[in-house]
Structure formats: structure tokens, C-alpha cells
Hints:
Number of domains of chain B: 1
Helix content of chain C: over 70%
Mean pLDDT of chain C: 87
Number of strands of chain C: 0
Mean pLDDT of chain B: 87
Number of strands of chain B: 0
Largest sheet of chain C: none
Shape of chain C: globular
Oligomer: heterotrimer
Largest interface: B-C, 111 and 101 residues
Low-confidence stretches of chain B: none
CATH class of chain B: Mainly Alpha
CATH topology of the largest domain in chain C: MetI-like fold
Order of helices and strands of chain B: HHHHHHHHHHHHHH
Low-confidence stretches of chain C: 1-5
Number of helices of chain B: 14
Order of helices and strands of chain C: HHHHHHHHHHHHH
CATH architecture of the largest domain in chain C: Orthogonal Bundle
Strand content of chain B: under 5%
Number of domains of chain C: 2
Radius of gyration of chain B: 25 Å
Strand content of chain C: under 5%
Distance between the termini of chain C: 26 Å
CATH superfamily of the largest domain in chain C: MetI-like
Amino acid sequence: MFALSNPITGRHLLGGLACLTLASAPAVLSAQELTMSYLASYKTATDQAIAGFEAANPGIKIRASYTADGQSIRAQFTTGNAPDITLVYPGDGAPMSLIQLAKAGMLEDLSSEPWARTIPQSFRRAVTFNGKAYVPPTTYSFITMLSNDEVMKKVGASVPVNFNELLAFCDKAKASTIPIAFGLKEQVPTLFPGYAMIASTAFVDNPSFAEDHAAGRTNFAKGYKQSMEMYLQMRDRGCFSRTAAGNSNDDALKQIANGQAALYVGVVAFLPAVIKYNPDVKITQSPFPGNVDESKVRLPIGPTITYGVSAQSKHKEAAKKFVAYIAQPDNLRKWAATVNQLVASDIESAPAPAGNATAVANLLRAKRTVEYLDRNWPNSKIQPIYMAGIQELLSNQTSVDALLKRMDDAYSQP
Amino acid sequence: MPDVKVNAGLRQALQIPWWFAGLALFCYLLMLVYPSIAGTYYAFTDWSGVGGFKYVGFANFKLVFTDGEALSSLKNTVFLAFTTTIIQNIVGLSLALALNGNSRLKAFLRPVFVAPVLLAPVVVGVIWQYIYSPEGALNSLLAVLDLRDWQQPWLGLPDTALWMVAFTVVWQFAGLTMIIYLAGLQGIGPELYEAAAMDGSGRLRQFLDITVPLLAPAVTVNVLLPFIGGLKLFDQVMMMTAGGPGYSTQTAALMIYRQAFTHGAFAYSTALAVVLTIGVALAAMVQLAVLRRREHTR
Amino acid sequence: MSRRVTLSASLWRVLLVGLTLVYAIPLYLVVTLSLKSDAQTARAPFAPPWQPYWTNYLEAWNASAASGNASLAPALFNSALIAILSVLVLVVSGAMAGYVLARRKGRAVEWVFLLFLAGITVPQQLGIVPLFQMMRSFGLVGNPLGLVLINTGLLAPLTIFLYTTFIRSLPTDFEEAALMDGASRLRVFWDVVMPLVRPVTATVIVIHGMHVWNDFFMPLIFLLGSGKQTLPVAIFSLVGEYSTSWGPIFAGVVIASIPVMTVFVFLQRHIVRGFSGGIR
């Protein structure tokens, strides 16, 4: 009525409304800044994804921090300064594992995202908690043994296919080279031969070891003892260099790349780094011979690190967009190619991994695989105890039984 | 001369009102006193940072003294406090004695030794992390000196890593110890030495009879500060080794931080902190008692 | 013949030369490594940088400016802000509190003084968890001003101890004269006492200014991930990101140390006096 009686006022009203609309629009158009914390070894792949995402979403900028280990990110979650997008380890067992973060309410429930409807069955346990999906499956990786073809030829040996051959190889090779490059200064490398040996012993004798463990029918002392003694055998037969305890994983990669070592055990994601250090290197991939019987060797395999949205984030929608971007098949393939891992959705068909890796491919196809052990550990205290414990074990600061007891004690804690 | 009534008035006026201390008291009570008391209280509960908690008596403290990681951390902490204090004083006193007589040398070299004191401990940690790294300056130096056999992964072996941390701390703060000893030495008049020389005392005798006793106040400071600082060591260790390899360089302060902020075990963390506080208080009291007495008996 | 404690034996000369090298070489390495590429460092770690590799500095400044936690530009600003404000509040609040405790008579004064003293040896770890909870409920986590408050509280004990003991040693004549002239007690404090306590103020500025600037523990907890981190935290994140690429890391170290070293060059005598002030 007011507007009708005075056309000038009506136009003013409309103009005012138009101005208001325009005034609020810039709030949507102006750039949002998101923070992200991720693992330094995935910097290239992540930077690539960020660049592609920002190009497709001009209103959103992402500032990424990279760190060598996730513990400081966990501290940020505790203090409320969590990044909007964070790295998440699938399953359980580390401070930054999905189960640990989800239990503490740190992650945003992403069950209604488009990618949440097509999670492969084998990944359900790794990316969901209490029926809710928090992170998309990205890729899966496995622990492989790299051998430098030239060094092997110089030593005059072929790649060992069972544990006794491995020990014999170390005896022979230690005179002229480092048999196995090992970054013992850091904690994570202890997992690589360790998981391979446990997978090929405890889990071969009892394929449902994890379930029995959870039900209380077995424990670390019964299952892991043999693998730890095998670790000591490797040390005593000279498989590791004398300076292994001072080498970082990066140093070990340089050693295998530059021909100073014959073998290296680690996740396949490290292969591009080796090639970067020496583009001419010739590498063969084989499974780590974790058992004296070749037919009992198993390949440790597991879903890899992925991206989650923090429950404290003030930019949840934008963060969810980024996670969905990564989960798109084309982008995921590009990401997977950069980190040299296999896309999650391929797990059913198990294509051959890159490089000279026939032996590994055979194991993958035959499904002679065991999931990464820590994914089944119920709390985040066990893995640090294992990692530090192996370091201490190899430097004679503790015994196998003492370490097993510590792990069993930690398993029963909440 | 002012009469008695004016004097009394002045004395009354110099009864400065309490509100002068208001801001300081407020911040102090809120930021230090209350949290310390609350922390001590939480040590007797099972609080995990979220949700409620219940009283658990001395359970956390029992755990502190049975947990391998905690015992290891406490052992490392005490070791670092002792070694850094002793070595720092030897180096600092030597430097002070060497530079005391020669003012030109002192002016030229003092900045070199004092500069590290001003750097952030984190920065000093980075510098020495590089030097001790397998490809770092120390191993390179050994290679140059044709001592390749002595090359080590200095921060990677449990036996050497803790010593290397100690040397780093000493390197940073020996200059401070030196300054304090130099100030103490300045206060010793040359006539004392002249008199002693005329009495026939040799240099060593003079050192023991004159220098050492008169340096007592400096010694007090130079023993107390590094020791307490050593007990609370966090920055350099966090930067250089983060407690590794294993837990062989983890200090109490580092474990307290980790338990609270990485593992969310708030109550356990505060129990450790209470143990550390008691340790620091004991160390301070014992040292003050012993050192103050030596200051006064000469 | 003036006899001071001197040591001229050649053994001492050797010791002095040795120690000088142990101190000078790491400082030399910081600067030279910041100007060498990884390849140059690997080849000749001790050689001077004949071809300075300035890219390290660009990378330390720009690359980490693009990333979050290692960003040096905001770190420089926040370190300065927190240090200046903390020292300012500490000096004013500490001197005023010291004045009360030094001049006021009564039993309560001794108790309050002891209360402050007790805080000198208490480690910050004891109260860190409740302190953190409290700051979180105030919404001050991630806020540099929160750290100013914390510093004022934690560093009050030593500050007040220094001011109280010093003022107690001052004769009251000047203050009484000013009071007789009709000045208020606040005026007396500001115009008479503050100039007299300049030595203590200098000591406080040096010791606490340095402590706050170099503080790592508190900013690590309260500012990591907030975008408002201080220099020590930025350096920590820088190393985490670049791990063994020492060139950019040392470039960052140089950038972070320039302020402190500049102050040191110009104020060395004052700084040294500040440190040894407690002894004389």
C-alpha cells in the first residue's frame, strides 16, 4: 500500500532491495581461505590436486602445511586449531587414524557425499566408523622389497625368495655393499620389514589372527614373537649397515638409488623418490620373503592415507568440495599415479603395479595378502610402542619378551 | 628537620595502596596459581580432556613410577640436568678466566660466545641437528681429518643421542655462565692477589684461596639456573630428536606435552607435571641451602 | 704491577682457540649453508658460497608463505607484537607491584611477596592443561593477546622479585620530598621511582623480552595452526616440511634470527649488563 500510493517510494524500495542483494553477493564471491595439513611425502600429489581444485573453484583458496609426521596435527586438534582439511590414516592404530579421530568427534560425518555411496566392500572397515563414512578411499599400497639390479649383479646373487635365502644373501652381500638399506633413525621404517614378517608368520598360521586377538583367544606374545626373533636374526647376520640407526628413510632411499645398497623394504609409494634420486636406476620389485617357506610369503597391503574434514571447521562446505574433488575417479587416478599407488576401486581387479614387479603382481592376484596390522589395533598406543620397541630391540636396549609384554599391556588399555 | 607529625603523615602516605599490585596479582593468580592448583588436582583423577572424570587417588602416580617410558624420561631429565650444569660451568669458568685479563681479546671474542644465548633454543636445535646429521658438518669434519671410522649417526644411536643434546645445550648457554663468572671476577680486587703473592702463595694457591671463595655468589647462580633449566628442557630436544630414537632422549617436559596433546591423557600428563615440579622444588631448595652456606662461611 | 686473574700458559691459549672455533663454525655454517644449494652443500659443506644461491631465501619466504604453519611473514609480526606487549605490561605491572611490596608495611606484604616468589621455580608444565582449558573457554586460543596475558602471569614472579628487592634498597627521600610537594602516589611512582629503577627495567626487558621472543612451548600449544604463529613455531614447521633440505631451512633461520642479532649488535653492552646485573 505504501509502495502503491507513491511510485517513487516503490522504486526506491526495489532499488534498496537490489542494493541489498548485490551487497550480500560479494560475501559469496570473495575468496574463502581453507587450511590443510598433510603428509610431506604426498606434497607433490596434493599440490597438484589443490591447483586443479582452485582452478575449478575460483572462490576458494587452500593453504597447505606439510609435516613429516602427523603428531603435531593431532595436537592441533586437541587445542582447537585444527586445519579444515586433514590427513587421516584409514582404520585404527595411530593418533591420526580414522577410528581414533572419529571416536573423539574430531571429524565431520561425510556419509551424504556422492562418493560415500560407492565405497568398495574391502574398504568399508577402513573408512567408516559406526556405519558413518568420514573419509573417501583413495588408493591402496603394499609393502614391497626394491632391489637394485646392478648391485645385485655385482654381488652375484638373485633376489631371495624365502627367509633363509635372505639371511644367506646378507652374509654374502655385506662384504661389498649394504645388504638392506634401512632408515632406523626414524620410527616408521621399522614397520616395513616388521609387518611383512608378521604377515608371513602369524597370519599364515592363523588367517583369522586379528579376530582371535580381538576376542582374547590369542595375543602379541603368541603371534609376533617369531617375527621379532627374525628381526634379530637379520641384524646379527649383517643385513643392516652399521650406521642404519642414524639413517633417515630418505637416506636409505638415496642409498638404494645410488647403488650403495642392494635391497630396500618399504611401501611402494617410495619408488618415485628412488627414481628421482637416480633416474637411471633399474629396480625390481619383489615381496619381502618373510617366511622360510616361499609359499607362505604374504604381501602386506592396505588402504592408504586419505583426506578428512575437521568437525571444528568453519568452512565445511568448501572443505567437503575439495574432498569430493579428490574422490572423483579422474582426479584420483592422477593423484594415484603421482604417488605410485593403485586406485582403491581397482582392488577387485588387481592390475599389475608399475615397474618390474611380476612377483608382487602374482601375490596380489592370488590374494595372498594381509591387511596392514595396525588397522586392527584398538588404540593408538600400540604402534608407537612397537616402533620404538623395534628400535630398542635392534640396539640391544630391550628384549623380545619385554617388548611383547608392553604391547600386550597396551592392547588391553582403553 | 620535619617534626614527628609530618613524619607520621609521610609514613602513612608511603603505605602504597594494594591496587598498585592489582594487574600483576590478577594475571599471576589467573595464569599461574589457579592452573597449578587445578593441575595438581586433576592429577588425582582420570580426566581425559572431554567429559567428566572421577577421583582415582594415586593411580596416576603409581603409573608414573612403573611405566617404562615415564621412568626413562625422568632418568633422561636428571641426566641432562647434571651433565649440562657440570660441563657448562667448566666451559664457562674456563672462558671467563681466559678472557678476564685481556680486555681486547674479551671485546673481540665475547660476542662470539654470547650470541648463541640469544638465539631461540629451537634455532640452536636446528643448527646442531644439521651438524649431527649423517651428512652433516661433524661427520664431514671427521672425513676431512681422515677419521672416517669415528663417523656415527650421532642422533640416531640411543647411547650418543642424549650426550649430543647435552652438548648442544651447553654450547648455547656457556656464554651466559661465562658472563656471570666474568662479573664475579671483576669484583675481586687485585690487591688481594698482590698481598697473597707477597706472602709467597703460588698461582694455584691464589686461585683456591681467593678466587674460588669470592666467586661463590656467581657459582650459586651458575649452578642453580642451568640445573633447573636442564630439568625443564623441552625446546631443543623437541626440535632435534622429538624424544627419539625410541624414548632414549625423551625428557619429562616432552612426555608431559605428548601425553596431553597427542594422546589426550590429560590426567596422566598432569601427574607427571606434579612429579617434575616436586623435583624442581627439591633441587632448588637443596642447592640454595648448600650454596648459600658456602657463600657465607668464607 | 697489577695482578688480575690471568692465565697465559699456552694450554689455555689452545683451549681458547678450540672453543672459539666450536662457537664460530656453527654460526658460520648457518650463514653459508643458507646460501648454498643442496648439491653445493653435499659437495663441499665447509666452503664459502662463491656463487650465492639466493633461491633458498626466496623459497623460505615465498614457499612457506603459501603454506600455513611455516609462514615467516605473519610469524615475524606476531613475535614482535607479543614480545613488545608482554614486556610493556610486565614492566608496568611488575614495577607497580614491586613498589607496593617494597614500601608498604605489614605482615600481609611478606605473604604476598612469598606468594610471588613461589612461582619462580614452578615449571609451566604443571598448570598447562588447566590453563589451556581456561583459555579455550575464554576463546583466546589462537589469539596472540592470550599469550600476552599468559606471559604477564608466568613471568611476574621474577619481575616482581627484582623490582621489590631493588626498590627496598632505595632511600625514600625523593619519594617523601615529592609527596610533601603534594604529588599523588601514582605520580610519585611514575616520576620518581620509575627513573630510579631503570637498571631493573633494563634487566627485565632484556631477560623477559628475549624469553618471550624465543618462547616455543606456549606458542606451540596456543598458536600452531592458527595462522598467527610466532617465529620459533614457524621454524619448527619449516623443518618438518623441508626435512633434509638444509638450504631453505637455514635461510629461514637467518631471517628469523636477524631481529635478535641486530639488537645484539647495537645493544651488546646493555644486554651483558642486564644478564650480570644479578651478581653485583
